[in-house]
Amino acid sequence: DAGVTQSPTHLIKTRGQQVTLRCSPKSGHDTVSWYQQALGQGPQFIFQYYEEEERQRGNFPDRFSGHQFPNYSSELNVNALLLGDSALYLCASRPSGANVLTFGAGSRLTVL
Amino acid sequence: QKEVEQNSGPLSVPEGAIASLNCTYSDRGSQSFFWYRQYSGKSPELIMSIYSNGDKEDGRFTAQLNKASQYVSLLIRDSQPSDSATYLCAVNRGNNAGNMLTFGGGTRLMVKP
Prior knowledge:
The complex is a heterodimer.
Chain A: E1 5-7, E2 10-13, E3 19-24, E4 31-37, E5 44-50, E6 53-57, E7 64-68, E8 74-78, E9 87-94, E10 102-103, E11 107-111
Chain B: E1 4-5, E2 11-14, E3 19-25, E4 32-38, E5 45-50, E6 54-58, E7 61-66, E8 71-76, E9 85-92, E10 102-103, E11 107-112
Parallel strand pairs in B: 2-11
Antiparallel strand pairs in B: 1-3, 3-8, 4-5, 4-9, 6-7, 7-8, 9-10, 9-11
């Protein structure tokens, strides 16, 4: 049983570019959250998707947007990249009503 | 004041000793508390969850919660070198961990053989 899978694992972009990160939740999970983890810091909540809608959002600008598809997979889009967007982006999933998050391995974004 | 605070460490303990990791939080409405372990370059892995005041034990791990003091801790007994990792404390306001989790910065634990 595959867990949470994320792609790509690593990518390098330049300032001003746009990036799309992808996440497939664990089988049986329908709720997906995204977190940003800068080097040496704890993860910060970006947003959560359930039933293809954004349900909660953390303190991130509108440059960060997302989407959830009917198969529960999700995308995180970041526009107008800044150097400070360099981080590990973690996707986490859970079944609705459950209280355990399963994290993916993350996508490491470097912005030059 | 950060919402969830942890000493960044590193906390160094000898193999076989008890490691004590501490976390304080500022939101009195927090109801759910979690400890995650994160090995270097890997994703966080849930170790313990605790919702009520007192102690909760699971194998070599014990989580302790004191809501009056807004304090949660993790004890690791018989520490092993494989326990060397960063330990993240996380809290949320609901009983459902799927709601927004607020993480501390993590404490790096080093267990020396």
